[in-house]
Amino acid sequence: MSSTWSPSEREQERRHIRRRQRVRSVLLATTVTVIVFVALGAGITSSPGWPSVHELFFNGFHARESFSAVRDGFWINVKLFLICQPIILVLALGVALARTARSAWLLPVRLLAALYTDVFRGIPTILLVVLLAFGMPALRLEGIPTSALFWAGVALVLSYGAYVAEVFRSGIDSIHPSQVASAEALALSRAQTMRHVVVPQAVRRVVPPLLNDFVSLQKDTALVAAAGIFDAVFAARDYGNFNFNYTPLVVVAGFFVVMTVPLARFTDWLQRRYAERERAGAR
After folding, report:
1. What are the residues whose beta carbons fall under 8 Å from the beta carbon of 51, sequence distance 6 or more?
2. Which residues, 6+ apart, have CB-to-CB distance to 207 below 8 Å?
3. Torsion over CA of 225, 226, 227 and 233, rounded to 10 degrees?
4. What is the C-alpha to C-alpha distance for residues 166 and 188, in angstroms, rounded to an integer?
5. Exposed e or buried b for every residue in 142-172, given b needs 16+ CB within 10 A?
6. 133 C-beta neighbours (distance < 10 Å), count
7. Are 182 and 163 spatial neighbours (Cβ–Cβ below 8 Å)?
8. What is the pLDDT of residues 92-137, one digit of tens each?
9. Where are the domains positioned within the chain?
């Protein structure tokens, strides 16, 4: 008797049908996608104003001429993102822990944390960048940095810290009370419970929405151009105003797309992975 297993004829037929259906679905989806994009491209390029739009926004000469200035300015956006991101995480987690504190002694801290999130979520980020970048150096305080770039980064940290704090707080609140009760039964203090039980689970749950916030942060570093900082957007706008051509803005858009799309796709993959784990755990 042979120990090797082989599928029956009926199973082979099912597999063949499923494979044929998958191929048909892929071909249909590809065909529809190509038709839609070709139709859109034909509609745009055949419009009466396309030649002027092409010259104004998609000029190859101006794209090459402005590329180096945009690239150098974009490095400022990248550095700003890399510096602000870890600071935002630390600030937001501290604010979230303050808002979930239960001790009566920490009531003033809870009120300050709630006030912080309400105020800085209510102020538009671009307005906060302008206010801090121009306002703080104008105070001429001793020992206070006067760099507009520094204060623009502070504005991004304060604005996104408020949003990310609410993400952390939602993760903390999603932990079942039985987890806290079990920790208390093991004689863990409130601080130990938060550190060893609640926060690690909460952080794992909110990783996908956190990554979505950081995709937005990558793009919003462009807001520092409103404060006169020579980042990629300011460099493109400066070139465009001098040469009466806005192709550099499209070049900047390409830089941001290249930076944000990989993180966005990683976020989507991570969300699918968490959803699969949740479904597997529910079985």
Report:
1. none
2. 270, 274
3. 10
4. 26
5. eeeeeebbebbbbbbbbbbbbbbbbbbbebb
6. 24
7. no
8. 999 999 988 877 788 889 999 999 999 999 999 999 999 999 999 8
9. 62-282
Structure tokens that stand for 233 in this block: 């957007």
Is 84 within 8 Å of 157 (Cβ atoms)?
Answer: yes
* Tokens standing for residue 258: 């290249």
pTM for this one? 0.82
Contact 176, 107 (CB under 8 A): no
Stretches in the chain below the pLDDT threshold 50: 1
Coil/strand/helix, residue 244: coil
For residues 98 and 107, what is the distance between their CA atoms, to the nearest angstrom?
A: 9
Cβ–Cβ < 8 Å for 34, 26: no
Q: Which of 43, 69, 35 is nearest to 232 (CA)?
A: 69
Nearest to 246, CA basis, from 47, 72, 59, 48: 59
154 backbone dihedrals φ, ψ, rounded to 5°: -60, -40
* Type of residue at 91: L
Q: Which fold has domain 62-282?
A: MetI-like fold (1.10.3720)
Contacts of 270 (CB under 8 A, 6+ apart): 207, 208, 211
Contacts of 132 (CB under 8 A, 6+ apart): 151, 152, 154, 155
Report the run of H or E that residue 279 belongs to, with start and end: helix 247-282
Tokens 């671009």, residue located: 126
